[in-house]
Structure formats: C-alpha cells, structure tokens
Amino acid sequence: MSTQPVLDFLHQLELPLFGGLFLAAASSSLLHQYGRVLGCSGALHTVFSGSYEPTQAALALGLTAGGTAIRIASPFLERSLTRTFFDTSLVLNVNSWNAVLFLGLSGWLVGAGSKLASGCTSGHMLCGIARGSKRSLIATIVFFPIAIFTHRCLKPVLSVLHLFPDPSPFLIRAMKPIAPLALLLLGSPYILYLLLALSLPAERLSFLRITLLGATFASGLALAGMTRPSVVLGFFDFPLPSWNPSLLGVAVAGLGVNILIYAFAVRGRVRNWTEATKKLSDTAAEAESAAEVLVEVVTRHAPLCAPRSGWRLPELSNTTIDCRLIGGSALFGIGWGLAGVCPGPAFVAFGAYPFSIGMWSWLLGFFVSDKVLDRLL
C-alpha cells in the first residue's frame, strides 16, 4: 500500500499546523499572562458598543493591523509559501446586490448568535473547550454541525447564483526554500511580545503587548486558511472528494496545545486562586494575619500581569446551559455556514481590504444585530 497519499495529506497540513501553533501561542499567552479569554466576537461587540475596554480594544487593533501587515507583505509571503491568504474575488469584487445582502445576512446571524451564546469559534472552540468549559463544548457541538449542514444545503443555490467563490480544493503545493523566512516574518509580533515580556516589568506596556498577541492571532488565522471563506467552506464539504482539511490544523495544533498549556500551567493556579479568594471573602471576622496570608496566596496565583483583577474566565461566573446558549450557537452556525466568515477573520480581512464592499456589508449586519439585541435584552 502506497504511503504517498498520507505524505501528501501531512504536507498540505504544514501551514495550517503552524497557524494553529500561532493561534495557541496568542490565546494561551493572553490567558496565562492576563487571565483573559481571546474572544474575537467579544472584541467586535465591544468595538460596536462604543465603550472602551483596553484588552478588547488592543485585540481589535492587533487583529486589524495584522491583516494590514499581511496584505502589505503578501507578495513575498504568498510567493514563499505558495498560498493565498485572502479570497479577493469575495472581498473586492462583490458587484451583485444578492451577494451584498447575503453577506449582510451572514454578519447579522453571526453577530446575533455570538452575542446570545457569548462566544464564537475562538472563545468557545479554541479557548473554551481547552479549559473544559461545558458551555463551550455544548456551543461547539451545536454550531459546528449546523454550519456544515447549512453550507451543504445552500451550496447548490450559491453555485447557481455565483454569489461566492467555490470551496477551495485540497491542493498539494511545495513551499519555496525561503518559506522559513516568511514564517519568521508572520511570527515577528509574537517574538516582539516575548522580548517585551522578558525585558520589562509585567505591568508595563500591556496595551502594546496585547496588540501584538492580536497580530499573532491574525497570522495564525491566515496560515490556517480561516481568512479565506473558500477554505472554510471547503472544510464544510466533508466528506465529499472536494473536502479541504486545512482547518484540522486549528483543532490539532491550536486546540491541542491550548489543552496542554491550560492543564499544566493554568488550571492549578486558577483553582488555588479561586479557593483563596473565597476564603478571603469569609475572613472579615478572623485575625488580620490570616487575611494577609490569603492575600499573598491570591496574589501569587493571579495572572502574572493582572494580579488585582484576577482570572476573568466565563465559567467562574456562568455555568448555565440554557436556550439562549443553544439558540445563539445555532444562529452562529447558520451565519458561519452561509459565508464562511466569523469575527476573527472578519477583523483580519477588513484590515487587509478596508474598502471592501463585501466586508462592510458583513460588518454592517453584525452591527445591526448588536444594536437590535441591545434593545431587546
């Protein structure tokens, strides 16, 4: 039996696996250092709310600036890696009102779903499952199959109307010898983040550091293929012959590494911090020396760069699995399956093509859903 098909399969997953590692590096660093979940939908909802929250603002800036930088460097990056990072036919050449309305509908559904379910592919699937969050597991179990089902049902209609590019096929293309330099360039935001972390006190330049993590996440999305709706929709073609398995890199490298980092570097600290914080709240009538000991424990197990605010993990305050979570996840799955666009890649694509009618339409739909639900909830 020939091993060539297996080797070809692994070869095609090289860049998506690197992308998954970049995603894990950014999301795990934000969690370990700042006690925050890297949720792209939360960042987009915060931007549209008009309020200023430093972490979300820095993530939004990093994702968008990362898209701009990738676009500027794309001639070198795409030639070196023999990959395309954006579907320009979708983001630039949307001349049909049908396509504009369809993208707007997708944005509306993704926006409404992520607001109701309090998360998207990054917050629930990449970060939530890694932490063992039951809410995130249920959300992913709901939205992923629904996205596949939606795409498979609507694919004939979309093909006839020529609204979107066909799902990207599974192609074998060898990278150029200068590919390592291109990967180093894409990983440069994280290298700079590490240099700042090693050379400055924990509380210094937090906004810049989180912005660099956002840019690292943008590089990971591009390498994994998630900035190309055709690749995402190609993954939804499972198990057809045209299936594109590139997004497996997110699951294997991104989710896998996050699970390991949370298990060995974060979970114990969160547990000890939670227990000490609870005991501290019950020591009002006890000796002052006991309270001082607990304060020291709380500080020692808090996130490295945010000892005062502590761990801000959704499961510490909300473990409810209800109709809002399930219904929101279903809406998100439908919207994601319609166009293959979710909040993180939308940030990156908008940074790369800020005058794209297609991306403005998607973002407008997201914005409208955000405002409508603000009034209703």
Automatic annotation (TrEMBL):
One GO CC annotation: plasma membrane
Does the keyword section mention Transmembrane? Answer: yes
User: Where does this polypeptide localize?
Assistant: Cell inner membrane
Q: What's one Pfam family the UniProt record gives for this protein?
A: DUF6691
The organism sits in which domain of life? Answer: Eukaryota
Q: Which residue ranges does UniProt annotate as crossing the membrane?
A: 15-35, 56-77, 97-117, 178-200, 207-226, 246-265, 321-341, 347-368
Q: Which InterPro entries match?
A: DUF6691, Sulf_transp_TsuA/YedE
The membrane-topology field of this record reads: Multi-pass membrane protein
Q: What keywords are assigned to this protein?
A: Cell inner membrane, Cell membrane, Membrane, Transmembrane, Transmembrane helix, Transport
Q: Which PANTHER family match?
A: INNER MEMBRANE PROTEIN YEDE (PTHR30574), SULPHUR TRANSPORT DOMAIN-CONTAINING PROTEIN (PTHR30574:SF1)
What protein name does the entry list?
A: Sulphur transport domain-containing protein
